[in-house]
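Consider the following input, taken from an annotated entry for AbrB family transcriptional regulator (Leptospira neocaledonica).
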Amino acid sequence: MKLRSKITSKYQITIPKEIRDSLKLSMEDVIEWSIDEQGIHIESANKPFLKYKGFLNKGSSDTKSDIKKAWEERAKRYSK
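Applying the prediction step yields:
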């Protein structure tokens, strides 16, 4: 899928809705740009908690229990 943005006279662009939705961006969010051999990449810069998405999902719907299990697993990793 190719998406387009137009550069304004002030070098501003509008981020296409599909990208905003994918990155869960909203007003005042910050994005990071990077360039490498594969091309130009953007990602959300101020939502680091998204990298933990699904980490606490252990099958139960009890958040306190899920947090306790996650802490126990983490403690096992660092107690060696």
